[in-house]
Amino acid sequence: MSALSALEDALENRWEALWARLFDREPVELVDALRRECDSHAVVCRAGRVMVPNAYDVELAEPVHEELTRRGSRVGQALTDRLARHAARHGYEWAGPLTVHVRRSAEVPNGRFRVASSVMPHVSADAFQRVGQPTRG
Fold first, then answer.
1. Contact 83/98 with Cβ under 8 angstroms?
2. Angstrom distances, CA of residue 136 to CA of 10, 125, 127, 129, 130
3. Is 69 exposed, middle or buried (0-12, 13-18, 19+ CB in 10 A)?
4. Contact 87, 23 (CB under 8 A)
5. Structure confidence at residue 11 (pLDDT)
């Protein structure tokens, strides 16, 4: 392990410890769940190339969502950043642009959070139409 990797791991562990103290462990567990979701859906395409899903949905139980948003935390961006660093460390390639969508849900089975992933293909800007604009044919 290079010195830079060791420093990065040490900083990440400190950051996780801070989140655990501030947010009562939920975000640390959530980051771990995102990592596991990413790792469990990794597909080896050829030697040295591993593709992973690029769209992640995080459903938070209402109390967890309230707690995180009350503190003014930018949870979606923080989770996206953490997942991007995880993938970079493992040499993963995204199947398209990375997105982590966080939303509130009353139907989370464990009362805390649920994580799911999928492959969302890149769609060019030309594929989108303005609302109310007629389709050209």
1. yes
2. 55, 16, 12, 10, 12
3. middle
4. no
5. 63
- The reported pLDDT for the residue numbered 132 is 45
The encoded tokens of residue 135 equal 């389709």
Which residue type occupies 43? V
Distance CA 16, CA 77 (A): 15
CB 96 within 8 A of CB 121: yes
Q: Which residue, chain included where needed, has tokens 């769209």?
A: 55
Question: How far apart, in Å, are the Cα atoms of 88 and each of 36, 43, 110?
Answer: 15, 15, 30
The stretches in the chain having pLDDT less than 70 are 1, 4, 7, 10-27, 71-73, 110, 122-137
| pTM metric for this prediction | 0.68
**DSSP letter for each residue of the chain:** --HHHHHHHHHHHHHHHHHHHHHTTHHHHHHHHHHHHHHHT-EEEETTEEEE--EEEEEEEHHHHHHHHHTT--HHHHHHHHHHHHHHHHTEEESSS-EEEEEEETT-TTSSEEEEEE------GGG---TTPPPP-
